[in-house]
């Protein structure tokens, strides 16, 4: 192959075999006990070669990252992942052994014999050398949970990490120790036991976990299992946590949330301090989620356009709930007045609500607003989120189509909205028209 020797880390051996050889960083090499990754490339040309080359590069990066995680005492890999890495290391050791190319089986056993006498050698590597065809380790539910948490960056948010740990504890109560339950062994009985566990769970105040909360936790577990099945290439396994036979009705009507009334909005607004009043006005006039509002940056506010608006998108302060939550919302009425006033002096990249533009800022803002809301209503069905329900109700009462309500609140993706209104400007005009009709 003419091109392969010109590709970084690839050379051609005298026997014509292509070899990938790349030196590990010093700390990684010392930890692994080998100076480089060396692998024979099976495909010699075309797309197949480049795909294999990219896969080996990815394996190299993964080995380096994992070695450094081990050095930091943070190895959370599944046993099957460690097994695959051991197979790759074993292949590299065989590839760099000279004089035994014609008998790779004998080479493997000789290398394994030598490593057995070396203190601190990974037993899994010796096994990979001596018996590479051995059955791989089982993938456990804990492995699936760890991979899900890593890929979804659960630890990026303290609240998300806390919620995730709580869900895993409840799953453990239902099915047993997660590291001892193979993913392949899951049956419908496990899903039903988890459902029953959630329905019988009591919160700290002694009240039952609501049906809505139980379903949301089950959705996370369903996602964990689906992710594990996909990422670990497990065939023939169905997810026993999907489509569970939940009760049709929530527990009690008093647990349902209600939209806030106009009187509440005015009364609470009159009570608020100067730093909270603009936030309250924005929530009441746009129907944003609290996390969306407190995470707004200066560049998310556009006032010099024909239609003043705010762009809701992921930024340095916070992510957003779903892809469909990315949207453009017109600013009208009190919300427009509040934003126009508070962005004065806010620099590019700065939060327009600086006191709450931080991790868990939405929780702090919610607590501050709820103190004032509880002075106006003691009904537990009333909360700050009721402002969002109020916007939905006002749009509906004004006669706004479902597409407007869903697009305004971030329940429909932009593709649906654009197929209805023809683009962002047309959508903004339509949203502004109905916002004004609804008296937002």
SSE pattern? EEHEHHHHHHHHHHHEEEHHHHHH
Runs in which pLDDT lies below 50 for 5 or more consecutive residues are 1-5, 250-255
Cα-atom radius of gyration: 29 Å
Characterize the main sheet.
Answer: 3 strands, antiparallel
Distance between the termini: 68 Å
Work out the strand percent: 5-15%
Query: Which outline best applies?
Result: elongated
Helical content (DSSP H or I, runs of 4+): 40-55%
Question: Treating each run of at least 4 consecutive H or I residues as one helix, how many helices?
Answer: 18
Q: Class by helix and strand content?
A: mainly alpha
Strand order across the biggest sheet?
1-2-3
- On the 0-100 scale, what is the average pLDDT? 82
Number of strand elements: 6
What does this structure look like?
The protein is mainly alpha-helical and 440 residues long. The chain has 18 helices and six strands. The chain has helices at residues 26-32, 46-71, 79-95, 104-116, 123-130, 141-151, 158-175, 188-199, 211-231, 262-271, 277-286, 290-294, 333-342, 361-376, 386-397, 402-409, 414-421, 424-437; strands spanning 10-12, 18-23, 36-41, 301-302, 309-312, 327-330. A three-stranded antiparallel sheet has the order 1-2-3. Strand 1 and strand 2 form a beta hairpin. The longest helix has 26 residues, at 46-71. The radius of gyration is 29 Å and the shape is elongated. It starts with 9 loop residues before the first strand and ends with a helix.
Describe the SSE topology:
Layout lengths: L9 E3 L5 E6 L2 H7 L3 E6 L4 H26 L7 H17 L8 H13 L6 H8 L10 H11 L6 H18 L12 H12 L11 H21 L30 H10 L5 H10 L3 H5 L6 E2 L6 E4 L14 E4 L2 H10 L18 H16 L9 H12 L4 H8 L4 H8 L2 H14 L3
Antiparallel strand pairs: 1-2, 2-3, 4-5, 5-6
Helix pairs in contact: 1-2, 3-5, 4-5, 6-9, 7-8, 8-9, 10-11, 10-14, 11-13, 11-15, 15-16, 17-18
